[in-house]
# Entry
Amino acid sequence: MVIHVSMDGAIVMKESEEHVDQEDYWDSKIQNEKKMLAEMNKAILEDYGNEPFEGQDESTQKKSLRNQFNYQERSS
# Structure
């Protein structure tokens, strides 16, 4: 059996304009994501106030996930 691998790619030099363009793109993308998250957090705070879990008891706030498999009681 013979497997051939072909990978296409390009090397971008740090001094090139393509590198600068890519850096600008990633920086603007990160800034837009941070801005969107800040807007979402602001909307959540407006809707629910400072404490979104206010009015709920502690059991609904702190649900722990329990292991549904009990490996100690396995029989061979």
